Amino acid sequence: MNEEIESIERNNTWKLVNLPNDKKAISVKWVYKVKVNPKGEITRHKARLVVKGFLQKEGIDFNEVFAPVARMETIRLVTALTHYNKWSMHQMDVKCAFLNGPLEEEVYVVQPPGFIDKENESKVYKLNKALYGLKQAPRAWNKRIDRFLSDIGFSKCITEHGVYVMKSATSDTIILCLYVDDLLITGSNEAQISKFKVDMMKEFEMVDLGHISYFLGIEFQKTSEGLILHQRKYANEILK
């Protein structure tokens, strides 16, 4: 919980203010999650501060909400292309991604349970950026990372808005599949991929997960005969 609040403060996500007379503050809650690796082993316990988005009113608290992600068919196609070209595949995760998305609307939330300012109990937080649970949070984050990727030289696929491609002067290629805060990265030049990772980590709080092994519930297993994609762990969890 402390780590989550620190991330919010570090990202300048909110500001403690008096609630305007014509506004209502939306409630928040803590959501707890256990993170596991492909073997089903617990890697960390996570607390997420979430806005009760079902209390939002369209036209007041939010307008547009759609945010594109890479389709599973596209991810499989990129995987096949990568294997055919003998490229490596990497994965990265954006920590607290939604906290990076600037808001266009004026939104206020109550102080979170366990972290109420005793000297300012009547005040609320005005959001500068999105929090998880807000209906417009995915769109705000997507606009933020889309702008950054464009600025560093990526072009968005015109038929698949969750896929970005960068072509260098030497005709090397980097392909990025974006699924909310999960990134699948591949390309013809390892040095350029490494540089892209550094650029991402300078701009956002990132976790570099190295070569791909587990992505969106899919396990990637290399064998002497090729690459196998399966969902054994996911299937076992369903059957429990």
TrEMBL record:
Domain Reverse transcriptase Ty1/copia-type: 11-240
Signal peptide interval: none
A Pfam family assignment: RVT_2
InterPro entries recorded: DNA/RNA_pol_sf, Rev_trsase/Diguanyl_cyclase, RVT_2
Protein name (database record): Reverse transcriptase Ty1/copia-type domain-containing protein
